[in-house]
Every structure is written in structure tokens, then in C-alpha cells.
Amino acid sequence: MSLSRLAVKRPIATIMVLLAVLILGFLIYPRLPLNLLPQMNYPMAVVVTQYPEAGPQEIENMITRPMEEMVGTTAGIENISSRSYEELSMVMVEFSWGTDMDFASLEMRERIDTVRENLPEGAESPQVVKVDPSLMPVMFVSVGLEEAEGEHRDLIDLEHLVSNQVVNRLKRIDGVSSVELSGVGEREIRVDLNEDQMEKYDLNSQEVYGILSGQNINVPGGRIVEEEQELLVRSVSEFSSLDELEETTVGINTPDFPGETSNGLNDSFSSGDELPADQNPEVSTEFSTDRRQGEEFSGDYGEPVYLDDIADIRDEYQRESLVRLNGDKALGLIIQKQSDANTVQVTRNINEELAKIQGEYQELNLVPTWNQGNFIEEVLSMVQQNAVLGGFLAALVLFVFLRNYKSTLIVAISIPASILATFPLAYFTGLSLNIMTLSGLALGIGMLVDNSVVVLENIFRHVEQGKQIKEAAITGTEEVSSPIIASTLTTIAVFLPVFLLEDLAGIIFADLSYMVVFSLAMSLFTALTVIPVLSVLLIGHNQAISKFIPIENLKKRYKKSLHYLSKKGKYVLGGAIILMVISFTLLPNLGGEFLPPITRSEFTVDVRLPPGTHLETTEEVVTEVEQYLLDEEEVDSVYATIGERASQREGAGYTQRTPHRGELMVILETDEQEKLAQQVESEFYDHDQASISASEMEGDLEMGGDAIEIDLIGPELDTLRELSQDIANEVSELEVVSNVSRNLPTPRPELQVSPKDEQSMLKGITPIQMSQDLETDLTGRRATIFREDGREIPIVLGYFSEGPESTEEIKEKYQDIATVEKEPGPTVINRQDGQRYVTISADSETRDVRGAVNSIQDRLDNVDIPQGYRLNYGGAYEDMWSSYLELGGALALSLLLVFMVMAGQFESLRYPLVIMVSIPFSFVGVILALYILNDTLNVASIMGVIILSGLVVNNAIVLVDCIKREDSVLEGASLRLRPILMTTITTLLALIPMAIAVGPGSEIQNSLAFSLIGGLFSATLLTLVILPLVIIWIKSRFNLD
């Protein structure tokens, strides 16, 4: 018994199954997570190692190179690159797509552990960070500082409150992975040494450093057993207050040798001397650094020298980065979610918690500055509206053709039934509601009714022949079940290769493919079960075919036209082939890009000053740009970060200190970010202090980098610097690109102090001691910590008031033991596969990235590249070509699967070959549509071509199946005209909302819909004309069966 016969025999059971599916779909829909894009496991990990106070060359030699060698032996590596900054090493390891990154990261950590002991002293433990686009920030929150602008103590208390209350409470929210506080200062206890006093007491900074670090301790000393009880022994000598720090004894000024000081009690006496009984510590007195007890030593054996005798101790607040909101100083909270968390739900929970915190702490001014959840909701709402509108248009077409609300209802019910049935499947397969899954549903809406239309139209045909409605429902459904199953399988088959793609394109479109496959499978089940049952229940016995729109005249004209054209078949076929060839000649004129740019209501402005610029100078330039932006009407808010930068492209978990750079995130009230970004660049094009550029915010799809990246690889850094400048100058001359830059900033001038070995050794000064003295003189040296209210405040020793402030003063102080020379030093050293490299990046002025790169390649033919140096093109351009190749292979496999399904359906190899004729004619429409609408050949439009290869054969399958049964080609073609037009028009109209959609994220839908509409339109016209003529021509010469 067939499924259709069983459904008609048991209508109540069928209706109950339908209701169960609808209820289950309604219940599961709210449980599906909401995200912008599918979960992407990017095959890249970054080894991040921080080494305070080290320069790029030290970082490269002592950390980066060893790390590259160790992780380079990990299995599955495609590429290794690295960047050595001041104080920071980053080694980026890129694996082949499909690599298990959890296992790869574990293997990298094991290899790194073997060299950790060989890292220089002071280097922090290397961290392996997996690159995950879903871990990018979901919200920025600013905390106003205007209320605490008085004493720095107010700032400290405010930051402590934010760190301990706001940050910790936000971290506890389900789905939040991290909350980073930016723009914070650092409290320091500064021990400002007085040079005259140091000389008076014959002390040096090394001795004072040793005393401070040695006396402020809390360390275990072992254990003892006493009275059957084990006691832990701990040596405790911590500073409990700043007064105690000031009264720390750093030496004893002996009366017999004024001006000479011992830096410990016992050093005041020679070996063998015996203290008087009243001053022997073993007999009567314990020695302490406390001044009150130290006074017992005044007299014959000298006066104690205390820390405040030689230094000024100050509790200070140092700010190395700034955050501003609309020109007002603030703190910044950068919130990231867990990779599998629901972005929209997480941001909603964050907003609720922020409201509670604001109510409890009135002194805080918490402002959510940017919320990715709002953007996602806006995008998904737009896609959902397009889907609903597409469904309405499809139902309207059905009513126009059927002219009966019951018939329309029967077919239209397959849309919500099929869609709701996909939600449980999506839930149990781990899919989320994102722009791709919802686009899959919107795309499938027009196709969902195809099977139902074919079934219902055939049932009506049998009713017209005089059969009872129940018999007509069973017979009519069974008669077309084979071709609609075949047509559904051909459509599903084209998506199977997409599941095999392992690159970024495959990840992006896998979710779309799943939803289309799920919905089509459910629509097939609905057509074979629900449609015949509802026909019996709703149509009745007296419903006739005359209720359809009168297109008999159209059918007659179509049949007569086919008869006429069949006599001139070779001319018609020749003309069609010429049209196809002409359209393919337009292919090189189509622009090429990876994905269409996503419209956003925000963009970023990057402000770069020469390396070495003070934070205050950078703030002045940022303020200038900030004020310009705030004067623009369309600007809603400006969030500026100055002096620190966290890279989103290479992962998370570290922040780079960049006092010469600032970044402004501009939030707009409209989606016109491109216009204002160009306006900003034009306004500050020739700024006398800074390089200022505007660009789109980095998002989930920008992991590949800038649109165009040219890697110049070679051995010598100086040659790379000169050659990359020549290349950048040549590229800048082209009108097709903008924002040309190098990742090799202007060298930062540095003073290189090199010890004179003989002279320094005669004075007993080692190179490490000299470097420590330099650190003490210039920036201060961290000696120990002071604990207060659970906080650890560094105690920094230095000559803050009297230290050298110029090159000449440094030369004068160290001239006896060292040479001092000013040399340009690199701010970053880039390496790729063991060689140094420089990246020249640029943005394409148009969407034709492929054409821009071709222009660059032609231009660079004039540049002489020395032997040993080479150019590689990367960025989104590399992603584009990689996806082209992957999708090209997927298209070829899709065509093979479609042929195999049809061969199994018709038990013939010739009929499938005939049907495949309709596929190349669909490409004609795709090319013309993209060309006329000024769209590009991108991953979305190519995906449309793959879908077309399974979609356009559906009409051909139905047509050929009917021709086979009717014997007459012309009669079979005219009989299938109505269902072919109905299914095609419903699909086309359902796609129109996607094609004309305007708003964030609509660009991907536009490209996909353009290629589908153009291809389906041309394929349908040519199928109705060319395919019957081909069959007639072949039948006249061969036996198709």
C-alpha cells in the first residue's frame, strides 16, 4: 500500500500527525539559539607570549623563533606566520580546513611545554588561543568617569568597584565567557630616590632594590611536629602600611665612618666582634626594621638609615590607556560570549543585569555602547519578514491560478507545515536561527508548494475525467509521485556536495543547505499525504477543473507555436546556442569578490601617529577626529579607545599597548556608514601629525583580513622595508584601490646602550646590572608589592624626579662604562614560514576585488623583485579563489548526482542527458541578471548556480515524464504548461523579497536571489521551448528508450 493510499484511508490519523508536527514546531522555535552566522571552527591557533620591556628584535630571537620551531612540527599545518612586537610575540598557526582544533591546540601546548624552561627570565607563560569568530565581543559598555575626576583616589575606588562588582557579576551571567576592563589606570607606590641622599649614605639602587624585595616576603619555611600536632612554619615580613614602608631600614650610618652605610645590621661589625650584653639580640633585643625599635641601635654602633631618608614615597595613579564616550572620559567593558551561546539571549541578560547594577550603584553611569544582539535581531527580523512576504506572494499566485480559496488553502498549508517541521530537525542537529538558516527557509518557500501544486493539479485532472474524489486523490497522487520524488531528490542532491566542503564557503552555506533539504523533504511528505487527504475533505465531488484560471487559449497558442518552431528546429536551437555563447562572453566583465559587503550602522576610524608618540599627543588628535564626528547629524555615538589595542583577527586573550594609536567606533543612526567613512578619510587625508583611515568593523566574515593583501617575503628587513615602500607607492597610484598601507610602521627611534666590556667589568658592573640601572633611571623598576584590601599594588623603585631626561644626560651618566647611540628600531617584525615579510594591504574601491588585483599585478610588472624575494596575494582575495575552486568542484559533483538520480528515475541514460540541456541555459539568465544588476560573481551567487542545477531540472522532469506517457511531445508539453508556470511563478515571486531586501545582511540574500531568479527565468522559458524541440529532433533520429 502506497503512502498516499494509506493517508487517504486514514484521514484522521494523517491530520493528527500534521497537528503534532505543527505543535512541536511551535514549541521548539523559541528554543533555537539566535546568532548572526553559523558556528565557524576557524582552523587557526595563535601562540601569545608576553615579555615586558623587551624590544621586537629580542622578542623575535628569544621567543618567536623557538616557538615557530616547536609548533612547526604539529600535524596538519598549512602555514605559520608570526609577529614580534614590543613586549609581545604572536605565532599564528594555520591548519587545513577540517582539522580538530581542540586536538591540534593540545598538541601545540605539549610541544611548547618542552621549551618553556628555555624562555628568558621575565617572559610570561605562552598561551595557545584558538581563533574563533564567535568569541568576538558581543557588547561594549562604557562607565562614565566624570564623577571621579577630582582626586585620583576617587578613580581608584571607582575602578575597584567596577572590577569587583560590575565585572564579576557580568562574568556570572550564563553564556558570558569573559569581561575585559579597558581604559583603567594602574596604582603604583613610587619610591622616588634622591641622588644626593643616596650619595650621602653611600647607597646604590641595586642595594635598595635588594632590601625591598628581600624584606617584603611571605614564604613557607617548612613544618614541625609538636605535641603530636603538625605545625606549618611561615616566614612573614610584609608591609602592612605605607608608614611601615617608609620606616624600612635600608642601612646603618656608622659614626666612625661618616658617609659610609652598611645595608644590614651585622655588616656593622666584623667577624668575631661581640656585642655588649645589653645590645646582643640573642640576649635581650630583637632587631626590626621598624624605626621605633631601630632607635635602640643609635649611639656607638651607628644610626639607622630609613627609606624615607633617601626617597620620596608617593601613592600614584598611572594611566596608560584611555576610553572616551562622546568626548567624555570613561572605562570600557568588552564582553565576549561562549562560542555555543545564544548571542541575542546573552545580550538581553547582560542588559537586565546592567539595569540591576545601575539601580544599586547610583554613582555609576553604565551605558551599553554597542550591542551585537540588536544587530542580529534586526537582520533576522528582516529575513523573517522577507520569508513571510514570499509566502504571501506564493499563496497569491496560487489563488490567481486556482480561483478557489479552498484549493489555495490546501496548497498553501504545505508552507507553514513544512517550515514548522524543519525546526525540530534543526534543533536536534544543533543548528541555530541565523541569517543563513532563515535564508534557506526563505529560499525554500517558493519550492515548498511545487510538489503540492503538481499533486493537486493532477487530482483535479482525474476529477474532470469523472472519477470520485477519493479515487482521484489516490490515483492522481500515485501517478505523479515518481516524478515529484525524483525532482525533489535532484534538488536535494545538489546540496550534498556542499556538506563536503571544508572551507569557509562550505561552513557558511552548510546551514542554508540543511534547512532547504529539511523543508523540501517535509514538503514532499506533505504533498504525498496531507494534500490528497485535504482534497478529499475540502474539495468535494463537484469541484471541476474549470475553477482554474482559463489558460486554454494560452495552451493552444503554446502548442501551435511549438508545432511551428519544430519545423525550424535547427534555427531555433542554433539561435539559443548563440545566445548562450554571447552571455558567456560577458562572464569576464562580472566583478569578483568573496562575499558582498554587509551593510552596518557602524564603522571604525584608525588613528596612527609615529611610534614613540606620547599618549597625550595621541589623545589630542583623537579628540579632533571625535569632535568632527560628533558634529555630524547621522552620528549617534563615538566610542574611542586610546593607547591599547586588542586584535580580534588573531583571537582573544591579550591586549597590546599602543600609546601612538587610537581607534574610534562610530555608531550611526542610519546604515550610511560607507558615505561618512569616505567623508572622514577625505577630511583628514593630509593630517600633519597622523595617518587616519576609516573602515568597516571587523566581523565574523572578516577573519581573512583586508580585501587585498600582498605579502612581500624575503630575508633582509631593510630590503623589505624599501621594496615594500616602492610597491605601496605603485599600488597607491591605482584608482581602483584605497587605504594602501604596510604592516611595517615607521621605525621607532631608540637609544642603544652597549657596555664597554673592560671598563664596566673593572667597575664590577655586569651588562644585566647596567640594564637594571637603566630601567631604574628611566621608567622605574618593580621591586615588590603592597597588599591592601585584596589588591596588589606594585612598589616601583626609580629616579622619577632626577633621572636622565635626554640623550645627552644618558650619555653623560654612562659614558665611562657604555656607548650610547641613537638608531632606528623596528616596532614589529613579521615572519612567514621562517622568513621575514611585509604585508601591503588595500581596499578595493569597487566590489570587483578580482579586477583590482589584476590591475595591481599589471602595475607591479614594472617593479624589480630581487632574487630571493617573492610576492603572495592573500586576504579576502585568497578566500575568493579558494572558494571558487571548492564551489566549482561542488557544482561538478552536483551535476553528476542530478544525472544519476534522473537516470535511476527514467531507467534511461538518454532522457537525463536531454533534460540536462536546461542547465546551461539557466547559466544564461544568471550571467545576464548579475551583469544588468551590477552584481558580482561571489560565493553567494555561485551558490545560487549550484542550487539552480537541481532546481531547473524539476520542470524538465515533469515535462519529460508526461511526454513519455502521452507519446505526443506537443500534447505532453501543453498538458504540463499550467503546473510548470504555477511552480515557476510561485518560486520566482517568493524570491523577490530576498532580491529587493534592503538592510543589514541583505547583500548576501540579494546575490543569491539575483542568480536564482535570472537562472530560473531563462531556464523555464528555454525549457518550454528548447527541450520539446530537442526531444522531437532526437526522436526523429534515435530511439530515446
Automatic annotation (TrEMBL):
One of its GO terms (cellular component) is plasma membrane. The keyword Membrane applies. Residues 250-299 are annotated as: Disordered. The keyword Membrane applies. Keywords: Membrane, Transmembrane, Transmembrane helix. Residues 260-271 have a biased composition (Polar residues). The chain crosses the membrane at residues 12-32, 382-402, 409-429, 435-460, 480-500, 512-539, 571-591, 881-901, 913-933, 939-960, 980-1002, 1008-1034. InterPro entries: AcrB_DN_DC_subdom (IPR027463), Acrflvin-R (IPR001036). GO terms for molecular function: xenobiotic transmembrane transporter activity. It comes from the Bacteria. SUPFAM superfamilies: Multidrug efflux transporter AcrB pore domain, PN1, PN2, PC1 and PC2 subdomains, Multidrug efflux transporter AcrB TolC docking domain, DN and DC subdomains, Multidrug efflux transporter AcrB transmembrane domain. Pfam families: ACR_tran. This is Acriflavin resistance protein.
